[in-house]
Amino acid sequence: MQVGETVSVAFQSIRANMLRSVLTMLGIIIGVGAVITMVALGSGAQKAVEKRIEALGANVLTVFAGQANRGGIRTTDRTILSTDDYAALVRDGRLLKAVVPEMQQQLQVEYGNQNLNVSVIGTTANYVEVRNYAVPYGRMFTQGDDGARQRYAVLGAALPGMLGGNPAAMIRQTILVRGIPFEILGVLSEKGSGAGWSNPDEQILIPLQTAKYRVFGSDRVRSMSVQVADGVPLEQGMVDLERILRREHRIRPGAENDFTIRNQRDILATQQQATQVFTTLLASIAAVSLLVGGIGIMNIMLVSVTERTREIGVRKALGATRNDILLQFLIEALALCLVGGLLGVLLGAGTAVALSRLMQWNTLISPLAVMVAFGFSALVGLFFGLWPARRAARLDPITALRYE
């Protein structure tokens, strides 16, 4: 029997039992679709983390007050970092390009009839440059504004909407921060929130000296972003930063730091590893559906062999060889899996797009995941279709013709 005729007979058998064929393919469709959707969710999360870290600056170190030993007890002291540390870094940092201190408090702000509790950050004029922000509306306050302790405010991208205002129309308007009037100078570009961080779009920036003397009444600094000079390895910049802070804090040689330096690249690597493990786990769980679908196909093919025993006997009596019968049933199993795999690809891609548009989830369809899932569905068809096909091919024609 020719291969073309064998393929035609196989597809005729599938069409003759269309409902059963569709139900058999459901396991493959769901399995392939689930794998593609899960990988798209994991890849989207990883891409979002990368964008978040890149937005913070790849050559930026972040300094936080760390744990210190006091009387044998480890305690966290958020008063360790101060504006004196900032001044020392600016003065003595040979390998540091820029230092941005951040004094932060949650304060009540009022604009018109709106009243919110948001994060107010006292910082310097180079905050926008180091943090890779743009100022699409208005401008950032200057170093001179900071030195003069001007009551100027720059809003995060989400605040105009939260306050019921228009970004462009709010420039030069007055906003009350802790009851103190501030003039709105500008509105920052959107950054978006990230896991483990507060939303930078829901904050207000005010000059550092204004925050220190007019609003917070303190020189405590929550954190500092330190940009390493161009061409300087990040590790060398970290050593320079650590040297200055240890000297300012009078830490003896061999003693632990009472501050923490975070490398954005390390954070990126950790987040990438976590999301990769998460993606692999989800895809592995979804792949179980493919195996279940394959078992379902093998079951149906075995039933089909039993139902068509007399047909197999007639075909063998008319000259069909074992290879012809084997090829026919393999083609049937492979066709079920390939069609199911194709429909699963469409289902997975459609689900990923729907989640992105309707629920605003970060998704990224991976061509590699699509190819692997589709190829795996073909392997499932070959693997689970081989036994029923061999069983059909080995039937004795005389016994098959006598089967009732």
In short:
By secondary structure, the chain is α+β, with helices and mostly antiparallel strands. The chain is 56% helix and 18% strand. The protein has a 6-stranded mixed β-barrel.
Describe this structure in words.
The chain has about 400 residues and is α+β, with helices and mostly antiparallel strands. The protein contains 14 helices and twelve strands. The strands form two sheets. A six-stranded mixed β-barrel has the order 4-5-10-7-9-8. A two-stranded antiparallel ribbon has the order 2-3. β2 (about 65-70) and β3 (about 75) form a beta hairpin. α2 packs antiparallel against α13 and α10 (about 265-305) runs parallel beside α13 (about 365-395). The radius of gyration is 33 Å and the shape is elongated. Residues about 70-75 have low confidence and may be disordered.
Lateral strand order in the biggest sheet: 4-5-10-7-9-8
Q: Give the low-confidence spans.
A: 68-76
What is the first-to-last residue Cα distance? Answer: 26 Å
Helix content: 55-70%
- Rounded mean pLDDT is 82
The radius of gyration over CA amounts to: 33 Å
Number of strands: 12
Global shape:
elongated
Give helix and strand order, one letter per element, not per position. Answer: HHEEEHEEHEHEHHEEEHEHEHHHHH
Number of helices: 14
Structural class: alpha+beta
Number of self-contained structural domains: 2
Largest sheet: 6 strands, mixed, barrel
Indicate the proportion of strand residues: 15-25%
